[in-house]
Amino acid sequence: MIAGKLRELKIGFEAGLVKFRNDLPSLIMIHGAGGSSIVWKAQTHLLKSRCNTFALDLPGHGKTAGSGHTEISEYAQWLTDILADVFDEQPYLMGHSMGGAIVQTAALSNHELAKGIILVGTGPRLQVAPMFLDGLKNDFEKVVETLIGYAYAPDAEESLVREGIKLMKKAGAKVVHGDFSACNRFDLRTEVDQIDTPCLILCGEQDKLTPPALSIKLNQLIKNSTLKVLPSAGHMVMIENYRMLNEYVSEFLSTTDFSLNKTGFKQ
Hints:
This protein is of the alpha/beta class. The chain is 44% helix and 13% strand. Helix 9 links the parallel strand 6 and strand 7 (225-230). The longest helix is centred in the first third of the chain and has 15 residues, at 72-86.
Protein backbone atom coordinates (compact mmCIF):
# COMPACT_ATOMS: atom_id res chain seq x y z
CA MET A 1 0.00 0.00 0.00
CA ILE A 2 2.62 2.56 1.08
CA ALA A 3 5.14 1.19 -1.40
CA GLY A 4 2.53 1.41 -4.14
CA LYS A 5 1.83 5.06 -3.35
CA LEU A 6 5.54 5.86 -3.44
CA ARG A 7 5.87 4.14 -6.82
CA GLU A 8 2.89 6.09 -8.16
CA LEU A 9 4.64 9.30 -7.13
CA LYS A 10 7.83 8.01 -8.82
CA ILE A 11 9.85 8.20 -5.62
CA GLY A 12 12.81 5.89 -5.26
CA PHE A 13 13.02 4.07 -1.94
CA GLU A 14 14.36 1.12 0.02
CA ALA A 15 11.93 -0.77 2.26
CA GLY A 16 12.39 -3.61 4.71
CA LEU A 17 9.02 -5.37 4.67
CA VAL A 18 7.27 -6.73 1.60
CA LYS A 19 3.89 -6.00 3.21
CA PHE A 20 3.10 -2.97 5.38
CA ARG A 21 2.20 -3.87 8.97
CA ASN A 22 -0.42 -1.68 10.60
CA ASP A 23 0.61 -2.94 14.04
CA LEU A 24 4.08 -1.37 13.76
CA PRO A 25 5.18 2.27 13.65
CA SER A 26 6.82 3.59 10.48
CA LEU A 27 10.36 4.95 10.26
CA ILE A 28 11.17 7.25 7.33
CA MET A 29 14.86 7.79 6.58
CA ILE A 30 16.38 10.72 4.68
CA HIS A 31 19.91 10.54 3.30
CA GLY A 32 22.53 13.26 3.16
CA ALA A 33 24.10 15.40 0.43
CA GLY A 34 24.83 13.53 -2.79
CA GLY A 35 23.56 10.28 -1.32
CA SER A 36 20.63 7.95 -1.82
CA SER A 37 18.41 5.57 0.11
CA ILE A 38 21.01 2.81 -0.23
CA VAL A 39 23.04 4.28 2.66
CA TRP A 40 20.26 3.10 5.02
CA LYS A 41 20.36 -0.54 3.91
CA ALA A 42 21.48 -1.80 7.33
CA GLN A 43 18.51 -0.01 8.88
CA THR A 44 15.78 -0.80 6.35
CA HIS A 45 16.51 -4.52 6.57
CA LEU A 46 17.67 -5.02 10.16
CA LEU A 47 15.02 -2.85 11.83
CA LYS A 48 12.08 -4.27 9.89
CA SER A 49 10.88 -6.37 12.85
CA ARG A 50 10.59 -3.17 14.92
CA CYS A 51 8.97 -0.86 12.38
CA ASN A 52 7.93 -0.36 8.78
CA THR A 53 11.17 0.99 7.31
CA PHE A 54 11.26 3.32 4.33
CA ALA A 55 14.40 5.10 3.13
CA LEU A 56 13.53 7.71 0.50
CA ASP A 57 15.56 9.09 -2.40
CA LEU A 58 15.40 12.89 -2.40
CA PRO A 59 14.54 14.65 -5.68
CA GLY A 60 17.39 14.28 -8.17
CA HIS A 61 18.97 11.46 -6.14
CA GLY A 62 18.87 7.69 -6.57
CA LYS A 63 15.72 6.69 -8.42
CA THR A 64 13.71 9.85 -7.75
CA ALA A 65 13.40 12.17 -10.73
CA GLY A 66 14.24 15.85 -10.58
CA SER A 67 17.26 18.09 -10.44
CA GLY A 68 17.63 18.38 -6.68
CA HIS A 69 17.07 21.52 -4.62
CA THR A 70 19.36 24.27 -3.41
CA GLU A 71 17.57 25.10 -0.15
CA ILE A 72 16.93 22.85 2.84
CA SER A 73 13.46 24.38 3.17
CA GLU A 74 12.57 23.10 -0.32
CA TYR A 75 13.59 19.56 0.57
CA ALA A 76 11.67 19.86 3.86
CA GLN A 77 8.52 20.94 2.03
CA TRP A 78 8.91 18.01 -0.36
CA LEU A 79 9.18 15.63 2.61
CA THR A 80 6.16 17.19 4.33
CA ASP A 81 4.09 16.82 1.17
CA ILE A 82 5.12 13.16 0.76
CA LEU A 83 4.15 12.36 4.35
CA ALA A 84 0.75 14.00 3.85
CA ASP A 85 0.13 12.16 0.58
CA VAL A 86 1.38 8.71 1.57
CA PHE A 87 1.24 8.10 5.33
CA ASP A 88 -2.01 8.00 7.30
CA GLU A 89 -0.34 8.02 10.73
CA GLN A 90 2.54 9.94 12.26
CA PRO A 91 5.82 8.23 11.40
CA TYR A 92 9.25 8.57 12.96
CA LEU A 93 11.75 10.57 10.90
CA MET A 94 15.48 9.86 10.78
CA GLY A 95 17.85 12.09 8.84
CA HIS A 96 21.59 11.92 8.25
CA SER A 97 23.71 15.06 7.78
CA MET A 98 21.77 17.16 5.23
CA GLY A 99 18.88 14.76 5.86
CA GLY A 100 19.07 15.77 9.51
CA ALA A 101 18.80 19.42 8.51
CA ILE A 102 15.73 18.53 6.43
CA VAL A 103 14.14 16.70 9.37
CA GLN A 104 14.83 19.59 11.75
CA THR A 105 13.28 22.07 9.33
CA ALA A 106 10.22 19.89 8.72
CA ALA A 107 9.73 19.27 12.45
CA LEU A 108 9.89 23.00 13.15
CA SER A 109 7.29 23.80 10.50
CA ASN A 110 4.85 21.20 11.85
CA HIS A 111 5.15 20.02 15.45
CA GLU A 112 2.64 17.22 14.78
CA LEU A 113 4.54 15.87 11.77
CA ALA A 114 6.31 13.00 13.53
CA LYS A 115 6.09 10.84 16.65
CA GLY A 116 9.79 11.32 17.10
CA ILE A 117 12.88 12.42 15.19
CA ILE A 118 16.35 10.90 14.99
CA LEU A 119 19.19 13.20 13.96
CA VAL A 120 22.32 11.41 12.75
CA GLY A 121 25.65 13.13 12.13
CA THR A 122 24.17 16.59 11.77
CA GLY A 123 23.90 19.92 13.58
CA PRO A 124 21.88 23.12 13.98
CA ARG A 125 24.19 24.66 11.37
CA LEU A 126 26.07 22.92 8.54
CA GLN A 127 28.74 25.31 7.33
CA VAL A 128 30.77 24.10 4.33
CA ALA A 129 34.33 25.25 3.65
CA PRO A 130 34.58 27.49 0.54
CA MET A 131 37.31 25.23 -0.87
CA PHE A 132 34.80 22.37 -1.05
CA LEU A 133 32.01 24.47 -2.56
CA ASP A 134 34.34 25.89 -5.21
CA GLY A 135 35.95 22.52 -5.79
CA LEU A 136 32.64 20.76 -6.42
CA LYS A 137 32.15 23.12 -9.37
CA ASN A 138 35.71 23.18 -10.67
CA ASP A 139 37.20 19.78 -9.82
CA PHE A 140 34.21 17.61 -8.94
CA GLU A 141 35.72 14.12 -8.95
CA LYS A 142 38.80 15.02 -6.93
CA VAL A 143 36.82 16.91 -4.29
CA VAL A 144 34.29 14.06 -3.98
CA GLU A 145 37.17 11.67 -3.30
CA THR A 146 38.49 14.03 -0.62
CA LEU A 147 35.07 14.50 1.00
CA ILE A 148 34.32 10.79 1.16
CA GLY A 149 37.80 10.17 2.53
CA TYR A 150 36.87 12.44 5.44
CA ALA A 151 33.45 10.80 5.81
CA TYR A 152 34.76 7.53 7.21
CA ALA A 153 36.87 6.73 10.26
CA PRO A 154 40.57 6.05 9.49
CA ASP A 155 40.21 2.29 9.99
CA ALA A 156 37.10 1.93 7.79
CA GLU A 157 37.18 -0.72 5.08
CA GLU A 158 38.48 0.64 1.78
CA SER A 159 35.53 -0.91 -0.03
CA LEU A 160 33.14 1.35 1.92
CA VAL A 161 35.08 4.43 0.86
CA ARG A 162 35.08 3.31 -2.78
CA GLU A 163 31.31 2.72 -2.73
CA GLY A 164 30.75 6.12 -1.12
CA ILE A 165 32.80 7.85 -3.82
CA LYS A 166 30.91 5.98 -6.54
CA LEU A 167 27.53 6.95 -5.04
CA MET A 168 28.30 10.67 -4.78
CA LYS A 169 29.81 10.84 -8.27
CA LYS A 170 26.66 9.19 -9.62
CA ALA A 171 24.56 12.05 -8.22
CA GLY A 172 26.47 14.47 -10.44
CA ALA A 173 28.21 17.79 -9.94
CA LYS A 174 25.09 19.98 -10.21
CA VAL A 175 23.06 18.06 -7.62
CA VAL A 176 25.95 17.62 -5.20
CA HIS A 177 26.97 21.29 -5.41
CA GLY A 178 23.33 22.27 -4.88
CA ASP A 179 23.13 20.03 -1.81
CA PHE A 180 26.28 21.41 -0.22
CA SER A 181 25.21 24.97 -1.03
CA ALA A 182 21.91 24.27 0.73
CA CYS A 183 23.80 22.91 3.73
CA ASN A 184 26.03 25.98 3.83
CA ARG A 185 22.99 28.27 4.04
CA PHE A 186 21.27 26.13 6.68
CA ASP A 187 21.28 27.69 10.14
CA LEU A 188 18.66 26.94 12.81
CA ARG A 189 20.74 27.84 15.85
CA THR A 190 18.21 30.43 17.02
CA GLU A 191 15.14 28.28 16.22
CA VAL A 192 15.92 24.64 16.89
CA ASP A 193 15.11 24.99 20.59
CA GLN A 194 11.45 25.24 19.54
CA ILE A 195 11.42 21.57 18.54
CA ASP A 196 9.36 19.72 21.15
CA THR A 197 9.14 16.34 19.41
CA PRO A 198 10.99 13.50 21.20
CA CYS A 199 14.47 13.49 19.68
CA LEU A 200 17.39 11.05 19.57
CA ILE A 201 20.74 12.48 18.47
CA LEU A 202 23.43 10.10 17.20
CA CYS A 203 26.95 10.80 15.96
CA GLY A 204 30.21 9.04 15.27
CA GLU A 205 33.01 9.70 17.72
CA GLN A 206 35.45 10.21 14.82
CA ASP A 207 33.18 12.32 12.60
CA LYS A 208 35.31 14.94 10.80
CA LEU A 209 32.55 16.43 8.62
CA THR A 210 29.99 17.09 11.36
CA PRO A 211 32.06 16.76 14.55
CA PRO A 212 30.43 15.57 17.80
CA ALA A 213 30.44 19.18 19.03
CA LEU A 214 27.55 19.86 16.63
CA SER A 215 25.51 16.99 18.07
CA ILE A 216 26.32 18.16 21.58
CA LYS A 217 25.02 21.60 20.63
CA LEU A 218 21.80 20.07 19.29
CA ASN A 219 21.37 18.16 22.53
CA GLN A 220 21.81 21.38 24.52
CA LEU A 221 19.27 23.24 22.40
CA ILE A 222 16.55 20.60 21.95
CA LYS A 223 14.97 20.08 25.35
CA ASN A 224 13.38 16.68 24.78
CA SER A 225 16.51 15.06 23.33
CA THR A 226 18.99 12.30 24.12
CA LEU A 227 22.54 12.17 22.77
CA LYS A 228 24.57 9.06 21.99
CA VAL A 229 28.14 9.23 20.66
CA LEU A 230 29.10 6.00 18.90
CA PRO A 231 32.68 4.70 18.95
CA SER A 232 34.50 3.26 15.93
CA ALA A 233 32.61 5.47 13.49
CA GLY A 234 33.00 8.63 11.48
CA HIS A 235 30.37 10.59 9.57
CA MET A 236 28.78 7.50 7.99
CA VAL A 237 27.90 6.09 11.40
CA MET A 238 24.79 4.23 10.17
CA ILE A 239 27.12 2.13 8.00
CA GLU A 240 30.28 2.01 10.13
CA ASN A 241 28.64 1.09 13.43
CA TYR A 242 25.19 0.02 12.30
CA ARG A 243 24.66 -2.52 15.07
CA MET A 244 24.99 0.01 17.88
CA LEU A 245 23.04 2.64 15.96
CA ASN A 246 20.20 0.18 15.35
CA GLU A 247 20.13 -0.71 19.05
CA TYR A 248 19.74 2.95 20.01
CA VAL A 249 17.03 3.45 17.39
CA SER A 250 15.14 0.37 18.63
CA GLU A 251 15.37 1.62 22.21
CA PHE A 252 14.10 5.05 21.16
CA LEU A 253 11.11 3.52 19.37
CA SER A 254 10.31 1.36 22.39
CA THR A 255 10.42 4.26 24.83
CA THR A 256 8.48 6.79 22.73
CA ASP A 257 5.83 4.60 21.08
CA PHE A 258 3.80 3.42 24.04
CA SER A 259 1.95 0.80 21.99
CA LEU A 260 5.25 -1.11 21.86
CA ASN A 261 6.48 -3.25 24.71
CA LYS A 262 10.12 -3.42 25.75
CA THR A 263 10.97 -5.94 23.03
CA GLY A 264 9.76 -3.49 20.41
CA PHE A 265 6.63 -5.39 19.44
CA LYS A 266 2.99 -4.42 19.88
CA GLN A 267 1.34 -5.57 23.06
